[in-house]
Amino acid sequence: MNKYENLSKPQAEFDFHNKGILSESDIRSMADEFLDDCRSRKFKKVLFITGKGLHSRGGMPIVKPFLRKYLSSLPFVDRVYEGRFDRGGEGTLEVTLD
């Protein structure tokens, strides 16, 4: 792995803000559609903007924990990690694709 990989900018991003109340099925479907498009365009790094979950019911994040687990289970995903501070930090997930 290139030691400067984390310095490269994501080639695309998907923002879950303003999508309304989402079920796990909704999150999975939106992520799949976005990733299918990114893979067809041969992208290697993408960014999901999940938010911190501050406005979730009970103040507990829903999208990010589910999305992290789901993305980590996909065979074409190499790595899932919290985005850099300048890209949204704890309100984002950066994903590297094979």
Can you describe what's shown?
Helix 1 packs across helix 2. Strand 1, helix 1 and strand 2 form a beta-alpha-beta unit. The mean pLDDT is 88. This protein has 98 residues and is of the alpha+beta class. The protein is built from two helices and four strands, in the order βαβαββ. The protein is globular. The protein starts with 11 loop residues before the first strand and ends with a strand. It has a four-stranded mixed β-sheet, with helices on one face. It has one domain: Ribosomal Protein S8, Chain: A, domain 1 (2-Layer Sandwich).
Characteristics:
single chain, 98 residues, alpha+beta, Ribosomal Protein S8, Chain: A, domain 1, 4-stranded mixed sheet, 2 helices, 4 strands, 21% strand, globular
Low-confidence stretches: none
Give the class-level CATH name.
Alpha Beta
Strand count: 4
Secondary structural class: alpha+beta
- Cα shape: globular
CATH topology: Ribosomal Protein S8, Chain: A, domain 1
Helicity, as a percent range: 25-40%
Identify the CATH architecture. Answer: 2-Layer Sandwich
Q: Could you describe the largest sheet, including whether it forms a barrel?
A: 4 strands, mixed
> What is the residue-averaged pLDDT?
88
SSE sequence, one letter per element: EHEHEE
Which band does the percent of strand residues land in?
15-25%
Strand order of the largest sheet: 1-2-4-3
Determine the N-to-C terminus distance.
12 Å
- The figure for the number of domains is 1
Number of helices: 2
The Rg value, from CA coordinates, equals 13 Å
